[in-house]
Design goal:
Layout: E1 2-7, E2 13-18, H1 23-32, E3 39-40, H2 41-47, H3 53-66, E4 69-71, H4 79-83, E5 86-89, H5 94-101, H6 103-117
Antiparallel strand pairs: 1-2, 3-5, 4-5
């Protein structure tokens, strides 16, 4: 993960994480939502139908391992494990994940920030 240190208009030091997501990760994050509301694994499986089970479990486990998702169960190895688990986006990463899901939004914010300073 690339960390860029940015100074905002109030001269506070903020850490900006540059997050790169795969297509499967984007699909799962969009199905869960970025609001921080827990989603039951059973509903998540219903929302994601086009992804193969093994790939789905690997991707979900990767998001949990990176800390982007919080889960009520530690080991997620089968679809039955997914069904018995609730997932939510880690609030520490919510803003950066929004930027990763919509890179255009990030560019617009940077343009707006630059215009205000001049």
């Amino acid at each position: 993960m690339l960390l860029d240190y940015l100074l905002d208009s109030r001269q506070e030091l903020r850490v900006r994480r540059e997050i790169q997501l795969s297509g499967g990760e984007i699909t799962i994050l969009k199905a869960i939502g970025l609001s921080g509301t827990p989603v039951a694994g059973k509903f998540l499986i219903d929302r994601i139908e086009e992804v193969e089970a093994g790939e789905f479990i690997d991707t979900l486990g990767g998001l949990v391992a990176m800390g982007y998702l919080l889960a009520t169960k530690v080991n997620i190895r089968t679809l039955q494990d997914v069904e018995r688990t609730s997932f939510r986006v880690n609030p520490s990463y919510a803003h950066d994940l929004k930027d990763a899901l919509d890179p255009y939004r990030r560019r617009e914010q940077e343009k707006h920030r630059r215009r205000r300073r001049s």
